[in-house]
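Researcher: I'd like a structural prediction for the single chain below. Treat it as a standalone chain; there are no partners to consider.
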Amino acid sequence: MPETIAIAEDEQDLREAVAEFLELAGYRVLAAADAAEFRKLTQFESVDLSLLDINMAGEDGLSLARWIRSRDAGSIVFATAAVSPVERVIGLEIGADDYLTKPYDLRELLARVRSILRRNKARSRQANGRRLAVIASVDIVGYTRLIREDEAGTLAITDQMFKDVLLPILQDGSGQVFKMLGDGALIEFGSVHDAIEWATAFQAAVRDTQSSAKEPRIRCRIGIAAGDIIVRNDDRFGETVAMSVRIQEQAPPGGILLGEAVHAMLRDKTKKDFECLGMRTLKNVPEPALLFSALPEESGIR
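Model: Treating it as a single chain, here is the predicted structure.
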């Protein structure tokens, strides 16, 4: 599958020329005229590199780069007619990988893009392997039925939920979505506490967004597991990933369930926010699992 390059450039002729040139070089290109369109195009895409015009009308490239970095969404190259020392420092602090000064030669752009993507592949190979992680599985309750009853409405509200609820809350923590599904998502966290804080905030936000509706349309289940995962080509595999899904299947609508390993890692004070459900049989798991549920009266993790 070709690597994806996203462009935010308000000069139409340049935007179209760059997009065509990179497509001819074998890349998949998403081209936007401003930051708002860029966000819409890339919201649910896996982007390898973003080429950003700094001085766009409205939201500038520096602000857009912060959003990209908060999602850990690939490398960043800035392009601008003039780069002040202050802008360069800010860009480097945000995490820019390179700068191009307009007008630039398209062959030079391609050479820089290829160099950055080669380095990324090398780092990715080094990052592949096993590591400990916390995995949260999120699933929309009754998704098949909702699609059958109102396909267009369900798809619209699902996209809105992920765009306006799931991802913004995730940006405040240390989680990374590594797989988007039609009816849910899989997210890796660096710590148990981060995962539970996010899950609690997400479920509360979903309830708030549905509170004004005559009939709540969307409710979610969340399951959280901890243990070894296998990282390969930006995806995650292994028993811990599968366990998060199986635990999530046992959660009530609007609920959060933890596996035993996750609960064991909690601070004593936080453990009081969960009750033991005892041993539960999980689908395709040979041994029963000890599960813990968030207490319904708890609105947050202390």
